[in-house]
Every structure is written in structure tokens, then in C-alpha cells.
Amino acid sequence: MDKTELLRSQLLVLAESFRQRLETDIPALSDLARSLPATTEAPIEPLRLLRDSLHKLAGSAGTFGYPTLGNKARELEQTARQCLDQRSWDDACRQRLIDGIDELKTMQKAGHSAQGPNPQMAQASVQPSSALRIFILDDDPQSALRVAQTLESFGYVVVTFATAAKLTPALEHDRPDALVLDVSPGTAGHGLLESIQRLQATWNQPLPLIAVSDQESFDIQLSAVRAGAQGFFIKPLDLAALENRLERCFNSFQSEPFRVLVVDDDIDLAQRFEAVLSSADMRVETVSDPRLLLQHMDVFMPDVILMDVNMPDYSGPELAQMIRMNDNWLRVPIVYLSAETDVARQMAALLKAGDDFITKPISDSVLITTVYSRAQRARLVSQALARDSLTGLLKHADIKEQVELEIERARRTKLPVSIAMIDIDHFKQVNDSHGHGVGDNVIRALANLLRQRLRKGDRLGRYGGEEFVAVLPNCNAEDAKTILDDIRAAFNALYFSGSNGAFQCSFSAGVSACQALGWEASGLLERADASLYQAKAQGRNRIVLADSGSDIP
């Protein structure tokens, strides 16, 4: 059974469950309405219960294919709310509710002619091959050569073009994974922007375009954006920043699925949301008991939270404020779900802690699009805030958090994880001899080399100054040592341009692994750091294992 048929089957089961629920819920609403007193003071608690039940029905009925019934439930909810807010209650109000719920009973018995589930899937991400191909068009052959050599050192396959006449047919018949285009006024690339914009419209997945220019004008940037540019750089190029942006483009295809936490007391509706979002390749967890919300967040680490506004004993804004009290969750967007149509009430909910508001009933396509866009934006912002500005690697606090997370994952899976502390040898001499600008180039070069050579699932951060931390899940100490030695040899072979001519650098590293040292993240970092000092003491330019003290000279 393919993904669409599986989802269709799941939604049909959920729709039948909802139909059966109506057979119980609507008679219960009728009984509750008829039990209300006719002429005495407004019955606060029973009326509040009726209002909340009608609100829940209004939010779910349309989603399950009963739009008319849902609209009538919303109308009755407003009637009950007015009676509560204004404390106005009489037999006429009671009768309006009874008559309206009788209409709901008639609608429920008549059934509906709902169409079968026809979810609109989010487009599947294109998984690039291991050898990513980059096309470059630059009127300056020396500039094109420098970019090509840099990108090739990071494992990309680069094809350069001198003219638009050669690039255009290549794009049409042999599409690359990304395009680097010089769009400076008067260049061939500038004249190609409109053609590329038309080509982008014919492709299911847009081609990542990196625009380069010798001018930073608004019009040039706008033309580049319209052609699909995901990066814009001014000459002379910062090649490390260019490679970072390309990696970000490709990571949007390769990153792990977005994680969505659905908080809703309506279990049937929550299950439907889960089925629809899961069909779009998102990981979904549902929470029907709000008291378990924070516990779920700590374990699941969601990218987005879908939060029902009205739940028994708790409100969505109250729960959102509890989430916002934890600094770790400030970056996670909270999207409210509700049948509430009053704009003032929606704004009040958003002002307290939310980020967006979706009114029930919700179409499958709107749900997928809204959640996907919010999750994508949140992850990009989170990554940007967690990254060191010079290297693009995780910052000190964030890489330490990744160490803890990977240790916890290793504990659950019983698979090894290795931690490496890496430090550039004699770095102070580099700064003293060649200046801090050249020193920054050395730091950036090692960061890029580590990022290129380590696996996508490995974690890498700048721990401070010229020191780095690498976290290698499912990798024992000996394998980590071998990998780092290959990177050490490659770093030794790089030449840097300094005030006194070309020079080379080396690094030392200490490695510790969880399988021999227990499961405490702080202990692993300390042992790796101690091994790094051993490597320095033994002459530098080597890797030392915490377990054995052995090294690779």
C-alpha cells in the first residue's frame, strides 16, 4: 500500500470513529440543554459545559466532513457564550439552544455526502547524491577557478562555464544540484536571470541558486530572488561563507523530519492531524493530557507545537505561557488550533504566548503547509542562533548540549559514541606572525574541513578560540581516531598565505568513548580534554585516546 492509500485508509477509520461519536455526543448535548432551568438565574456550570462541548464539536465536525453541522455548532456555541458573558438567561434562550441542538440531531441522522479523503501531500524532498554537482558561470576565469578549487576541496563536483550559451542547454538537459552565478551588471549571468526564473517554474524542486555580484543594489538582489537565489554574495568572495550557504541549501533536503507536537483533548481530531502530518514525512506526537506536556517536550524536542485553545481545566494560552517560562523552548513556535472566530479573542491568545492561529475546521493542505513553513523557519532560526559567526559551527553551549543528547541516545540504543577535543597547534604564533585575519582563515579552514569529512549525523562545534568539539554517534574510539587522523593529514597539507609567505598548520586531538567510560557527558568531555593535553605534551600533531593513551604520530 503506497503512502496516499495508507493515509486514505487511516482517515476513513477516523471518520467512522467520529460518526459513531456523534451518535453519542449529540443526544448528550440535547439532554444537557433540556436539563437547563427555564426561568431562574443563569445556570453557570451546566451552561459552561454546554458551551465547551459545542466549541469542541464546532472545531472537529468540519474537519471530518460535516461542515454544515460544524457551522451550526459554532452558532450555538456563540449563543451559549453570550448567555454566560452577559448573565442573561430566560426560557427563550433555553429554547433556542434546545431547538438548535435538535437541528444538529437531524443533520447527524441525515448523514452527509462527504468526499473521500484527498490529502494534498507536501512535496517529497529531493535527496541529493553523495557527489553533489555545482555549475559555475563567471566571466572572470580566475575567479571561477578559485571558487571551483575551494568547492572541490569540500568534495563537490564542479563544472565551470565561460558563456551563457554553454550553460543554458546544460541546465535544461543536465540539471546540477546547485548553481553559482555571477550576476554583476554587464555579465552573462545577469542577462540569464529571467531565463533561469522561467526554468525554475518548470521544475518540481527549485534549483538552489547562489548569486555573486560586484554591486549590492536592490534591483540586482530582487532579480536574483525572483530567479530563485538562496544566497547573495559581494565580491571579493568569502569562500567559506559561500560553502556554508551551499551546505545550508543541501541540508534543507537532507535534514531529519520536522517534529510536531499536537496538544488537543479531542483524541479523534488529534489522531487525524497526526495521520495527515505523518503522511507529509513529519514526526508527530500527540498529548491529550496537558499535565504531561512538559515531559513530552523534554523527550520529543518538537520543532512546532499545535495547541488547542480550549481544553477542560486548561487553556492553550496558559500552557503556552508555561512553555515560554523555559528558555530552552523560546525558539519553538506555538500554533493555536481553535474553532474560535472572534478576532479579538484570537489576538488575546496570540499576545500571551502564541505565534499563529489556525481556525478549525482545517483542510489537510492548509495544515501541512502551515506546519511545514513554521517548522522550516523555526529550524533555520534555531540553527542560525546556535552557530558561531566565524565558522558556522555550533557555539560552546550548543555543542555541549549535543554531547548530552548523543550520550542519552547512546544510553537508549546501547550504541557507542565518541567525543573529540581538537586544538590547532601553536595558534598564538599564527596570530602574532601573520595577524588575526589570517588566524581567522586558519580556524575557518579547519572548521570547513571537519564539516566536510565528518558524517552528516556527527555534531561539530567551536568550543572556544581555536578549539573544537566533535561528537561521533555510533562510532567507537578506534574508528574515531582513524577518521580524525585522516583529517589531520589533510589539514597538514593545506597552505595558508601570510605576511611572511606561505605556511602550514597542524592540530592535536584527544578522543574519549562512552563504552569504556560510562555515560556521563561531563566525564567524556573532561577525559577528551585531558587526552588533548597529553597529545600536546607528546609533541603535538597527533591524536591520543583517553582509554589507552596511545597516539598516532
TrEMBL record:
Name the UniProt key words of this record, in alphabetical order: Phosphoprotein, Two-component regulatory system
Q: Which reaction does it catalyse?
A: 2 GTP = 3',3'-c-di-GMP + 2 diphosphate
Where's the GGDEF domain?
415-548
- GO terms for MF: diguanylate cyclase activity; protein kinase activity
Instruction: Report the EC code(s) recorded for this entry.
Output: 2.7.7.65
Start and end residues of each Response regulatory domain = 133-250, 259-375
Protein name from the UniProt record: diguanylate cyclase
A GO BP term here is: cell adhesion involved in single-species biofilm formation
User: Could you name the Gene Ontology cellular component terms for this entry?
Assistant: plasma membrane
* Family annotation (InterPro entries): CheY-like_superfamily, Diguanylate_Cyclase, GGDEF_dom, HPT_dom_sf, Nucleotide_cyclase, Rev_trsase/Diguanyl_cyclase, Sig_transdc_His_kin_Hpt_dom, Sig_transdc_resp-reg_receiver
Q: Which cofactor does it need?
A: Mg(2+)
